[in-house]
Amino acid sequence: MSNIEPLPNIDFELFSKLDLRVATVTACELHPNADKLLKVTLDDGTADGRQVCAGVKAWYDPAELVGKQVVIVANLEPRKLRGEISQGMILAASDLKDAPAEETDGKPGPDERDVVVMTIDKPVKPGSRVS
DSSP class of residue 103? Predict the structure, then answer.
């Protein structure tokens, strides 16, 4: 049983503003200016695709993400992360491991949690909506 506190409820209108889409990872490399980020190129069904920076370097080798279909937040405001543009967010689950607080200094790191990128179990067309 988890002791994670839920966030407050939001109304459906706010939720409906999220644009969740399927994208295929076409390339992935270490971010040149950040220790925790990967630079990911995605086929999101648009002509140009997009790039996102994902904080999953501690859990994924870049090569193992190439070819996977992931779920992204497609309408997140683009921003620069350590000099690279990030045009969305790849969804991932964070599974905190049970560890005594004195061992973790209160800050979970790669040894205290697993991060799992949300993938699609059956191929779908890049750009497909997630609902």
Answer: H
Q: What is the Cα–Cα distance from 97 to 40, expressed in whole angstroms?
A: 27
Q: Are 26 and 49 in contact (CB under 8 A)?
A: yes
Produce one character per residue of 87-100: b if its CB has 16 or more CB atoms within 10 Å, e if not.
bbebbbeeeeeeee
Instruction: Give the integer Cα–Cα distance in Å for 9 and 20.
Output: 19
Mean pLDDT of 55-76: 96
Length, in residues, of the chain: 131
The pTM of this model reads 0.84
pLDDT level of residue 96 (50, 70, 90 thresholds): confident
Sketch out the chain's domains with CATH numbers: 15-117 (2.40.50.140)
Which amino acid is located at 78 in the chain? P
